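User: I'm curious whether this sequence folds into something compact or stays loose and floppy. Could you predict its structure so I can see for myself?
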Amino acid sequence: MSLLCQLATQAELRAGMPDPASWLEATEQARLAGLGTVARQRSFVAGRWLARLAVQRWRGTTGLPALEVAGSGACRVAGDGGVFVSISHSGEHVACAVAGLPVGMDVESAGRPRDYLALAQAVHSVNQRKQLESLAPAEQARAFLQAWTLKEAWLKAREKGLDFALMRTLEFDDDPQGDTAVADVGGLVMAIASDPALPPVIEFQPGVAWRRCQARRSPSG
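Assistant: Here's the prediction. I'll summarize afterward.
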């Protein structure tokens, strides 16, 4: 069993994309109509198109799958409980993961300046904040984003929203048979998670090294 990851820019996805009205399902059209800006609408459509291409490739079929928006907001393959998909956006980039078990994907750009120590107050445990503070400023972005994407991917695999209190309890230990993995891809940090353990094979770009981890709940968030 394998897990398939896909990464593309919105421009790449729009090239040759059929009219979304011809393939978006009713729940997707309703979500699209509720998005307030053109940028968010374009990002949403690009993600749903990439998800269809990824599921199609993972299945090895020619027909496009029907997707729907779950009550939690997650992306689901309509009528198929054996295929799971997750989408993430960062700027012009869109990422997607597909597997035969619940999966979560998150992608973040390391190029946007942010106060990572301040952000850590909301989503990191005391121990994680101390570790982050001990790093040189140039190293803090990568360290924070690796932890953040792992946490968000773990939550997505369980169809949970951004629960900051829960995020503060999550710790990750290196484990080749764990339920999460994170990688640096150019200027992006990508993380995937599954419930339970990740499949042994992660299909993605050649040469990308995934750091596999096991999530655990710490009593002191």
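Summary: The longest helix spans residues 38-59. The chain has one domain: 2-217.
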